[in-house]
């Protein structure tokens, strides 16, 4: 069989090589919008006319339905291929091929209330590689990594924490250990990067510079025409889709926590549908989902917590639209989204059974997108500082004597310290709870705000 439809961009029903989910967060400063939604979803539209865009949606927290954000779709340049969002939810990054094949990355700031996208000053940023097909952001938000298909390398950048601008890491781009890298995924601790070529290239990531160093034993064997790689939330397992029609399966690996080396899971590879194309792992680590581009469905699996082995979910595979290319799960784990990029140009949406992992179409699905949607990612709902909740609760209890007697001096001092911290953090960081200790912030849920049982972040 001719492998090219699954090997390089613009050779798979106009689709691009794409993969993995990067989760991210709608920043704190609780708003009515964020309280009512499960965050935002972003879809890259490659566009048959060449000029692409990003469709942006709010996710209904109850139903999972998608509602277009005002101003959507947002311009994304010529031939966009993949979208990822920074873990703090402030920035979005889209890989761009352009008609000449010269690569770049479009960067956007995300409005924390509406989800709207605004280009970062200086965007787009050159990749120094050809035909970028995927981008991933490190868990600490300091680095971004781009797989360049035609030039066979990986571009690495530092991310400006204030503006989101990209600066090449010294030594970038870094050579891949095989041809046409398609997909890149990072371990949850930010120590390792994995890139699909004709195998799986593994790297250690310098915590200081972001530079990549090959893991001993890399590259690690995969199946035929590997296209997408994902790492489980606990960092123990990696999964790679093998898209060749004679393969149609998923390779599974255990990850050495010290070296990052990969070891095949017993029983791997595991059967999938035709043209297994993109893989993601549920945020709870219990389920995995694979889009099958040629059979137009989604394979769902339970993950053995001890071994990483995959077992098909009852009812799997689940029907999708034509040529499903990318799959993402909402940060709350309740919903899944799949881009359908041939003819229909829409997004299939599903509720996820929390017990079995089975998929059920959401009423109103599929939801319209732009021309040739090929990549999807989601963000988490807004966060709110726990100490803000404590202040609000105390005020609402009517503790007027304490206020009148000046017994809240500790609050004033704390707010003063907060202002000092804000000045050090720079603009737009006033309510960034990620700079506080873990015990200082929680998921904001107005329905539980007074019950003292809010879910710990």
Radius of gyration computed on alpha carbons: 22 Å
| The number of domains | 2
Annotated CATH homologous superfamily of the largest domain: YVTN repeat-like/Quinoprotein amine dehydrogenase
Tell me the major beta sheet: 5 strands, antiparallel
* Helix proportion range: under 10%
Average pLDDT, rounded to a whole number, is 81
Inertia-based shape: globular
CATH topology of the largest domain: Methylamine Dehydrogenase, Chain H
Structural features:
457 residues, mainly beta, Methylamine Dehydrogenase, Chain H, five-stranded antiparallel sheet, 4 helices, 40% strand, disordered N terminus
Secondary-structure topology with pairs:
Elements lengths: L31 H5 E9 L5 E10 L5 E3 L5 E5 L1 E6 L5 E6 L5 E9 L6 E3 L5 E6 L1 E6 L5 E6 L4 E7 L6 E3 L5 E2 L7 E4 L5 E5 L3 E6 L6 E3 L11 E6 L5 E6 L6 E7 L6 E3 L5 E2 L4 E6 L5 E6 L4 E7 L6 E3 L5 E2 L4 E6 L5 E6 L5 E7 L6 E3 L5 E2 L4 E6 L4 E3 H11 L3 H5 L4 H17 L15 E3 L14
Antiparallel strand pairs: 1-2, 1-34, 2-3, 2-4, 5-6, 6-7, 7-8, 7-9, 10-11, 11-12, 12-13, 12-14, 15-16, 16-17, 17-18, 19-20, 20-21, 21-22, 21-23, 24-25, 25-26, 26-27, 26-28, 29-30, 30-31, 31-32, 31-33, 35-36
Give a written overview of the molecule.
The chain folds into two domains: 4-381, 7 Propeller (Methylamine Dehydrogenase, Chain H); 389-448, no CATH class. It contains four helices and 36 strands. 8% of the residues lie in helices and 40% in strands. Residues 1-34 and 384-457 have low confidence and may be disordered. The N and C termini lie far apart (48 Å). The protein has 457 residues and is mainly beta. It has helices spanning 32-36, 386-396, 400-404, 409-425, and strands at 37-45, 51-60, 66-68, 74-78, 80-85, 91-96, 102-110, 117-119, 125-130, 132-137, 143-148, 153-159, 166-168, 174-175, 183-186, 192-196, 200-205, 212-214, 226-231, 237-242, 249-255, 262-264, 270-271, 276-281, 287-292, 297-303, 310-312, 318-319, 324-329, 335-340, 346-352, 359-361, 367-368, 373-378, 383-385, 441-443. It is globular. Strands 1, 2, 3, 4 and 34 form a five-stranded antiparallel sheet that branches.
């Amino acid at each position: 069989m001719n492998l090219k439809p699954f090997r390089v961009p613009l050779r798979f029903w106009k689709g691009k090589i794409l993969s993995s989910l990067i989760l991210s967060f709608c920043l704190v400063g609780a708003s009515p919008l964020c309280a009512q939604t499960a965050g935002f979803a972003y879809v890259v539209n490659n566009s048959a006319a060449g000029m692409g865009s990003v469709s942006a949606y709010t996710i209904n927290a109850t139903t999972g339905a998608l509602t277009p954000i005002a101003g959507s779709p947002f311009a994304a340049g010529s031939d966009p291929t993949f979208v990822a969002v920074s873990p703090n939810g402030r920035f979005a990054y889209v890989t761009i091929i352009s008609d000449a094949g010269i690569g770049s990355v479009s960067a956007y700031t995300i409005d924390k209330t509406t989800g709207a996208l605004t280009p970062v000053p200086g965007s787009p940023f050159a990749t120094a590689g050809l035909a970028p097909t995927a981008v991933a952001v490190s868990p600490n938000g300091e680095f971004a990594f781009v797989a360049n298909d035609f030039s066979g390398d990986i571009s690495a950048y530092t991310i400006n924490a204030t503006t989101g601008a990209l600066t090449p890491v010294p030594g970038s781009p870094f050579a891949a250990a095989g041809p046409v890298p398609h997909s890149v995924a990072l371990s949850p601790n930010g120590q390792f990067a994995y890139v699909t070529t004709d195998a799986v290239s593994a790297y250690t990531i310098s915590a200081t510079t972001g530079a990549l160093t090959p893991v001993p034993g890399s590259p690690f064997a995969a199946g035929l025409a590997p296209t997408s790689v994902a790492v489980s939330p606990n960092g123990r397992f990696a999964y790679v889709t093998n898209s060749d029609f004679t393969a149609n399966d998923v390779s599974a690996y255990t990850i050495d926590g010290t070296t990052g080396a990969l070891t095949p899971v017993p029983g791997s590879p595991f059967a999938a549908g035709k043209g297994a194309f993109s893989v993601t792992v549920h945020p709870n680590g219990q389920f995995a989902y694979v889009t099958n581009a040629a059979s137009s469905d989604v394979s769902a699996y339970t993950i053995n917590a001890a071994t990483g082995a995959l077992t098909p979910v009852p009812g799997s595979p689940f029907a999708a639209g034509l040529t499903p290319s990318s799959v993402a799960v909402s940060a709350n784990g309740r919903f899944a989204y799949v881009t359908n990029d041939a003819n229909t140009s829409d997004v299939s949406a599903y509720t996820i059974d929390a017990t079995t992992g089975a998929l059920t179409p959401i009423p109103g699905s599929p939801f319209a997108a732009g021309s040739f949607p090929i990549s999807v990612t989601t963000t988490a709902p807004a966060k709110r500082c726990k100490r803000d909740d404590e202040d609000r609760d105390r005020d609402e209890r009517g503790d007027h004597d304490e206020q009148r007697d000046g017994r809240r001096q500790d609050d004033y001092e704390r707010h003063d310290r907060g202002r000092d911290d804000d000045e050090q953090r720079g603009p737009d960081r006033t309510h960034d709870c990620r700079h506080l200790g873990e015990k200082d912030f929680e998921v904001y849920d107005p329905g539980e705000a007074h019950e003292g049982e809010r879910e710990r972040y």
